[in-house]
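Potassium uptake protein, TrkH family
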Amino acid sequence: MLPKKLKRLSDMQLIALGFLLLILGGTCLLMLPCSSRTGEFTPFITALFTATSATCVTGLILVDTYTHWSFFGQLVLLLLIQIGGLGFITIGTAVSLVLRRKIGLKERGWIKESFNVLDIGGVVRLIKRVLKGTVLFEGIGALLLFTRFYPEMGFFNGLYYSIFHSISAFCNAGFDIMGKYKPYSSFTAYYDDPIVSFTLSALILIGGIGFIVWSDIIDHKWHFKKYALQTKMVLSFSAVLVFGGALLFYLLERNNLYADMSTTGIICSSFFSVITPRTAGFNTLDIGSLTEGGKLLTIILMFIGGGSGSTAGGVKMATIFVLLLHLRSTLLRTTGTNIFGRRIEDDTITKATALLCTYLFAGLAATLAICGMQGFPLGDTLFEVISAICTAGMTTGLTGQLNFISRLIIIFLMYIGRLGSLSFALSFTDHKKLTHIMQPVEHINIG
C-alpha cells in the first residue's frame, strides 16, 4: 500500500519526504548515549536541531560540536553533512551505479529535480561528475589542511580534522570541531593563516558555484564564450561578490576588527568573511563584534547565497542577477532582459520574483515571531533568521538563547531553505488542478 502512495507523490514531494526521514533518522542516532561525550541521552530538541542543521548543511548549533558529541556522534554529523550536501538522491544513484542497476526515467526525474536542471538528458553523466569531483576536491582540501594541522595535532588527529573540515567546507555545512581548543571558536585562531583560510574558502566556492557550472567548465575548459548563460552569470557574479565584497568588508571593519591586525590577517579575513556567508557558516572573526555595516553586508551575502544546484543555500546568485537585469531593462525601458548576447525568458523572471518574495515573507514572518516572543534586538534576530533560511549557519550568538518555539521556527526555516522555499511551497500544489480561465483585465497603479 505504501509504494502506491509514494507513486502518487511528485518528485519534489519525494525529495522533501526523503530529507525529513534523513533528519529524523539522524535525530534518533544523535539522541543515543554513545553519541554524546558524557555518555548520556541528548534531549530531543537538541538532537533534532543539530540533525536538521547538518542535513540541511547550515551550521547553526545549540551545543559545541567537539565538547558535546563523541567520536561516533561526530561521524553521524559528518555522514548527514555529506548526504545532505550532495543530496540523498545523489547517494542513492551512486549506490545504483556501483551495483550496475539501470537508472530509470523516474529516478532521472528525481535527479533533475534534485539538481534543479532544465531537462532530463545527461543527468546520469552529471551525477558521475559530481561524485568524482567531490572525492577529488575534498581529497585535495584535506591534504592541504593536513599540512597545517599535522605539525600541531599529530598524524591521526591532524588527518581526522583535515577530512572533517574539508567535507564540511565543500558541502557548505559550517560544522567544525575546533572546540577542542575553545568552544564555539570556529577558525578564529587561524584568522591570519593563508593555508587554512584560502583552502576552506576555495572548497566553499567550488562546492557553492553549482554542479551544472562544473560540468560546463569540464566540457568547454577555459573558453568563456562557449559557456552556457547560467555559467557565465554565476562566474561573473561570484567574482564581483568575492573581490567587491572583500574590499567593502575591509572598508567597514578597518577601524574596528582590523584596527590592530596585520596585512596578512586583513587580506585573509576580508576574503574569508565574504566567502563563508555564502553559505558555509565558518568564521575567523567574532561575528557579534562586527560593525552594524559589517553585519548588514553579511546578511546580504547570506541572502544571495551560491549557485543553483549546488551545496550552497540562499536565493541563489542567478535569481538576484536576473532580477537586477530586469530592473535595469525596466529603468532603461529596453525590450526584453538581455545579457551576454542572450535574452532571459519571462517565466524565469517570474520564478525569480516569486522566489525572492517567498524568502522575504518567510524571513520577515519568522523575525517578527521570534522578536515578539523573546524580545531580541531586531538586527540580531534578522541575522539569525536569514542565516537559517539561507542555510548559512552564521550567528551573532543568539542561537543558544532561543526558546523551544523559536528553535522549532529555526528548524523549519533550515528545512525549507535546503529544499528551496519556493519548491517547498510548490510541492503542495503539484497535483492540484488549477483553472485556466482567463479573467478580464483591469489596470491598477504601481509605484
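thats it. The mean pLDDT is 87. The chain has one domain: 2-425. bye
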